[in-house]
Specification:
Elements lengths: L8 E5 L3 H12 L4 E5 L2 H7 L6 E6 L7 H11 L5 E5 L4 H9 L4 E4 L4 H33 L3 H11 L4 H8 L3 H14 L5 H8 E2 L2 E2 L10
Helix pairs in contact: 6-8, 7-8
Length: 216
């Protein structure tokens, strides 16, 4: 498959080989890459780390059901989106799967277009999650290069305080705060406060691991 044509990766886990073959054929023709597994143990052992990706998971299998794999992935901190597929399921199973973060729950037989819609939604979710993880790692690495005093100033900057306000809060001279502010921006790779805020925040959620400093 040409990399430019790659739409995303699918981990297909189903104990029925005919379903694995059928879905793998149909989805690969639509420019998805596929890895097929006959049970959750094979997936945990052999799955290649690829992103963006989605797990297409049968809920009823002889050795271990899909819900147990979902629980194990949560325990491991793995966030690849899951779409459950099932020939028959109890309402309690569907509710549990969705409460634990499944993107969708499809009952067999389902149309290919319905499946593709769910897959594309899950892949977009994984892309967004990957972007956030990279952004968080980048921001935290830059923040770790700051001195303790610069980290303190950085916190007040993100909260919207000006030089004089910060000086009053931590007992420094305004000129000293101004110098620290310039160093914070330089080390964080930002040319303005707005860039620093964009680096430190994801929407309304702060992604930098910063805690409020003590006041002087």
């Amino acid at each position: 498959m040409n990399f430019d044509d790659f739409k995303g990766h699918i981990y297909l886990i189903d104990d029925d080989p005919s379903i694995r073959r059928s879905l793998a054929f149909s989805l690969s023709s639509l420019r998805y890459s596929i890895q097929s597994f006959e049970n959750p143990a094979a997936f945990l052992r052999d799955a290649l780390p690829i992103s963006p990706a989605v797990i297409l998971l049968d809920i009823c299998m002889p050795e271990a059901n899909g819900l147990s794999l979902q629980t194990e992935l949560i325990r491991q901190g793995r966030s690849t989106p899951i779409i459950f597929i099932s020939g028959e399921s109890q309402p309690a199973e569907i509710i549990e799967a969705m409460k634990k973060g499944a993107v969708d729950f499809l009952l067999k037989p389902f149309g290919l277009h319905v499946l593709v819609q769910s897959i594309d939604l899950a892949l977009e979710k994984d892309r967004a999650g990957l972007h956030l993880r990279i952004k968080t790692k980048n921001a935290q690495e830059r923040f770790s290069s700051l001195t303790d005093k610069e980290r303190e100033i950085c916190w007040w900057m993100i909260k919207g305080y000006g030089n004089k306000e910060i000086a009053n809060l931590n007992g420094s001279a305004a000129s000293t705060v101004k110098l620290h502010r310039s160093r914070v921006l330089e080390k964080m790779g930002c040319v303005s406060l707005s860039e620093l805020l964009e680096l430190a925040m994801d929407g309304d959620r702060r992604i930098l691991n910063i805690f409020e400093p003590p006041r002087a």
